[in-house]
Design a protein that fits this description.
The chain is mainly alpha-helical. The protein folds into 2 domains: about 55 residues, no CATH class; about 50 residues, no CATH class. It is about 50% helix and about 0% strand. The longest helix has 15 residues.
Length: about 110
């Protein structure tokens, strides 16, 4: 496990080059089973330990799944909820198209 932690710190330094830039996005890709989900989860935790907000989602090729489901899940992440709450009303109305629960939380919003 210590090797994994050292590798993640080195990876974090490599990816972020000494600093995390606000609004950064990391996209992982590769063959099934090589550890993308584990790497993404560990990296997200590392970013949060550095004091930054982080959000993650997963996408699977499945019939009947709404096309925007991964984006809605991502927007529901704890790391983004505080940011969404600070949006101007016009943008909250747009986000409510993907997160209808915002209409319940803020009844004055118009979809």
């Amino acid at each position: 496990m210590a090797d994994v932690v050292v590798a993640l710190v080195e990876l974090g330094d490599l990816i972020f080059g000494g600093g995390i830039v606000a609004g950064s996005v990391i996209l992982l890709g590769g063959e099934p089973g090589i550890g993308k989900s584990r790497l993404a989860d560990e990296l997200r935790q590392w970013v949060e330990r550095q004091g930054h907000a982080a959000a993650a989602t997963r996408a699977y090729a499945a019939e009947g799944s709404p096309a925007y489901a991964p984006i809605a899940d991502w927007l529901r992440s704890a790391g983004l909820r505080a940011q969404i709450a600070q949006l101007e009303v016009i943008w909250l109305s747009e986000v409510a198209r993907l997160l209808p629960e915002l209409l319940v939380e803020r009844p004055t919003l118009r979809p």
